[in-house]
Every structure is written in structure tokens, then in C-alpha cells.
Amino acid sequence: MEGRQPGDVRVPRSLLIVSACVSISFGALFGLLADLQKALHFAPWGLGVATAAAFIAGFIAQMLLARYADRGHGRAMLVFGVGLSAVGCVGVAAANSLVPLVMSRALLGFGEGMFMPAARRVVILENPLAVGGALGRLAAWQTGGFLVGPPFAAFVADAFGLRVPFIVLAVGLLATMPMMFRFAVPPAGVSSERAPMRLLLRNAGVRAGLYLGAGLTVALGVYDSLWSRFLKDLGASTKFVGVSLTLFGLPIPLLSGRAGRLTERFGARRIGALGLMGAIPFIASYGVSTVPWLIACAAFVHSVFDSAVGPASQAQVAQSAPTEHIASGQGLLDGVGLLVAATASLVAAPVYAQWGKETLWFGLAVCVAACALAGAPRRLRRPGTPRSTPVPAEPTL
């Protein structure tokens, strides 16, 4: 780490590439979920079940396995996470009913739930002086992969069939797996704490990060289960849905790194809360608009604010958690977020069917506002104040 200056961000490119590949599989299934419902002939409630399966599986993986990245098993988690994601893609391609689709979706969620805590631990330890910027860069590649998924899947499925995109993705994930064998992820320290999640939940700073993360993931749960169905009900085509998803998240990979650096200057809680508050008017607007291209344009601006929330919540938890529980903190953040997203995805479909889009989107706006207020700082933090317990610099490669 000699010669490193504050703000100097270094993230292994191979880790960024594999993170993007794992996320592409989620984006592909996101964009084709309504088409899979039609092809496999399952009821609309199955959309929520299929979506929730990935979130619940990811929650289980994060809560049970994230701590092992802190204990020296990070490389195994990286490798097996990518492998399970590939198997999940094969399962989606082979699914002939709702049940195997749900099981395959769960494998995708479990694979990502193993991969991300270890990946973030590598990034945090590699960048002790620029945690926010480094996590923002990782989030940018992860989100960028997710955004590539829907248009890629839509155009490949249109040309070659609904199952082909997932076969291609499975092959791509297996091809990237050898990159993960080169990482050594050493333990951050020795702790006698047998229940790190309980310890972290008692930390007020960690809880603030959880609130911020929940404000983002409650919305993601609704988008994941209903965005495709919502736009199709307004007359949009499959290709338009794929393009709209790309527009929705395009600012995130472009701005997440910059947003992460802003957290280092002005405080993660402040940046995260402002991001959530800025998104609220756009979420409410989806309940009154009936023109798909106007919704897509609003979503583009909306995601400018969302680009700040992910890095801010991750940085807030990373800066508040004890150094021996770095990966556990990230696992808790993602685990809680996945549980919130799963609940939102299960609730969203019946709310949309029973009471319509106005109730759905206005209700979501209220939930996001509550999370923003809960995660906002209680007092102003002086810009540039460092974390009280710096993350130690350790070699990761």
C-alpha cells in the first residue's frame, strides 16, 4: 500500500468483470420474466414468487455465510458463488413450469449471496483510504452488468428463442470462474464473537446503513416483480421493456463511483438520505403517468438519485462495523435488503392487481420516505472526517 494517497481507488479488474457477469444473469431474467410467465403458463402471482425466491435465497446465503469471508474462506465463496450462478442460468433455460423456474431463481440468488460479501471484503481491504469510492466502483460494474442483461436477453431471445440467453450466460459465467482462484482473501482479525450479526445490529451506525439500504431495496423488489408487467399493461413491447430498464439504471454505473467519493467528503448517511428523498417524486409519478416513454425518461432521472444510495449504505456499514466483521457487515446489509425486497415483491403483485398502479407507487413512495428519515444523520458530520476505526491495509492478491 506504499505510495497510496487518499482517494486513490484500486479495484482488481477481474473482480469487476466477474461481478458484472453475475449481475447480467439477474438482469436477463428481470427483463424476460413476463415472457417466461406467458411461455410457462403460470398465474400472475407466480411473478412475485419467482422474484422472492432469489431474494430469500440470497438472504439465507448472506446471513449464514458472509462471516466466513472474514475467517479466511473468501476465495471459496467467490468461486462457488460464480458456479452456482451458472447452474442457476442452466436451470432457467431448462425450466418447463413455475417450480423449476423458482428453484433456478433461488440458485441465482444464493450464488450472488455467496459472492458479494467476499468481493466487497477484497475491495474494502484493498482501499482503506477510499472505502466509499472503491465500493462505488464495484457497485457501478455490478449495476452496469444488471443493465446489460435486459436488452441482451430481449434481443437474443427475439432472434434465437427464450432459453438461449441463459445458456449463453451460463457458459460465460463458467468461463470467468478461473479468475477467482487467484484471489487470497485473508481473515481481517480474530474475534471471539460467535454471533456477529447481533453485535452489528447493536451498532447505531450499522443500523443507519441498513435503513438506507432498505429504502433502495424495497423499491427494487417492486421493480423486479412488476416493472415488466407494469409497462406491458401500458402497451409497451418486450424490446421497449428491455431498453427502459437500461435507461432506468444507466446513470448508476456512470455515477456510483463519484457518489462513493462524495460519501467520503460529506458523510454516507447524508448522501444516502438525500438520494432516497430525491427519488420519491419520481416513484410517485409512475402512479399517474400512462405513457411508457415518459415513464422511461422519468426513470432515467430517478436513477441519478439511486446511484448515491447503494455506495452510501455500503460505506456507512463498512465504516461503522468492527474491522474483524467487515464482510459480516456487508452480508447483513445485503441480507436485510434482500429480505425487504422479497417482502416487497410478494406484496406488490397483489396490491397492483387489487388496487392498481396508483396505490402501488404512492405506497412505495411512502415506504422510501420512511427509510430516508430513519437513516438520515441526527447531527451534521464535518466533511472529511475519517472513520474512527480505519480499515487495515492487507494484501488481497
What attributes does this structure have?
single chain; 397 residues; mainly alpha; 0% strand; disordered C terminus
Notes on the protein architecture:
This protein is mostly helical and 397 residues long. The chain is 77% helix and 0% strand. The chain contains 13 helices and no strands. The chain has helices at residues 13-40, 45-69, 74-94, 98-126, 131-160, 164-176, 196-201, 204-233, 238-249, 251-266, 268-285, 292-320, 326-375. α1 (13-40) packs antiparallel against α6, α4 packs antiparallel against α5 and α5 (131-160) runs antiparallel to α9. The protein is globular. The model is unreliable at 380-397 (pLDDT under 50).
List the helices and strands and how they pair.
Elements: H1 13-40, H2 45-69, H3 74-94, H4 98-126, H5 131-160, H6 164-176, H7 196-201, H8 204-233, H9 238-249, H10 251-266, H11 268-285, H12 292-320, H13 326-375
Helix pairs in contact: 1-3, 1-4, 1-5, 1-6, 1-8, 2-4, 2-8, 2-13, 3-4, 3-6, 4-5, 4-13, 5-9, 5-10, 5-12, 8-11, 8-12, 8-13, 9-12, 10-11, 10-12, 11-12, 11-13, 12-13
